[in-house]
Amino acid sequence: MMDFPFPPALRLLRWAIHGTFAVLLVIAVAGVVRSGGTALAFGGGLLGLLYGVGIFIEGRLPHFGGCTHLVLGRIWLVVITFGWAALALNAPKFVWLAFPLFFAYLHLLPLAVALPGVAVLTAAAIAAAGWHAGGVHAPQVIGPSLGAAVATLMALVYKALYSESEQRRLLIDDLVRTRGMLVQAESDAARLAERERLAREIHDTLAQGMSSIILLLRAAHRDLRDRPADAEQRIAEAERAAQENLEEARNFVRALAPPALQHSSLVEALGRVSDSAAAGTATRVRFEVSGAPVPLPADYDVALLRIAQGALGNVSRHSEADNARVTLTYLEDMVVLDIYDDGRGFDPAAQPAAEITDTGDTGFGLRAMRDRVAALGGALTVESVPGEGTAVVATLPLGGGEGEGEEGR
Hints:
Elements: H1 7-34, H2 38-60, H3 68-90, H4 98-108, H5 111-133, H6 138-223, H7 228-254, H8 259-262, H9 266-278, E1 284-290, H10 298-319, E2 323-330, E3 334-341, H11 364-375, E4 379-384, E5 390-397, H12 404-408
Parallel strand pairs: 1-2
Antiparallel strand pairs: 2-3, 3-5, 4-5
């Protein structure tokens, strides 16, 4: 694949110039051979050999960063010019070799030097032609002058095409580099989003389950001596919670739905979560359903279950509440999950929204809840007053796709 957009045209133009020199040189050498000029024919062959060396040097110029090869090219140009002048003074057939030399001047020399050089070369060609014709006439002037004008115009077009092709090559390089940066940025964003999702899942599942197990085992240890029956019940509940947590971990790896939802409805899963949250604590948790339950999309079920797990985890660990209530309400255009407790509460205005918590921790739980409902187009409201409890309300809109929930599960 070439490095710039117009390599075929530029390469064709370059080889057309070299071909023109070769054809003119062959014609001139053949003419002097027929005239018996063996020495001139040898000189023409030597000039062709030098020109071939120049093509080799010119082909290497773009591949080296230094100016050594450019200097060699200009030395070559001087040698070729003197060789041409010597041949042109001895045989008129070599005069027309000045035409391809015009291109060499315009290619190897700066434009400010090349144009005067072309003018001098044109004058030399006119003088050589007039020398052989016995005087300068119109054909001797028009021919070299017209060739110089055409060569200059073509060289300028060549430079313009090459400059434009280089600009396009640089632009393409920039676009490719920018595309790579965009791909990397999208990859980083996707990785961060996945990391955030994993953090929410772990917080709402494994972390909550471990906290419940710890609370149950502490209660069992407390009751072990005086109430062994209660302690045994707590240990059994901790064992069940550990089993559920293990299932959560396995399903988490397999990216499946929560085990609480695999074989039951959202209402049943929320009931079990409420009962589990009350185990091992003094808080009484009541679960209620308002309205006629309807099938919800699978991601709705997962989000509402996780929100309930996170909120009840905060209640059981930190609120010191006597009572808590979980209410799932089905309305015509929305589904509402309300978790209320009469615990110690907190002041929402005392902390930034991203850090609001009644638990004293980093507040990641509430932020994860907000992210879940926001991803589904819903809203999360947290209301709390110190000493009067806390209410967490998650609202999700119901559209035309409610019936997809059962099929999704």
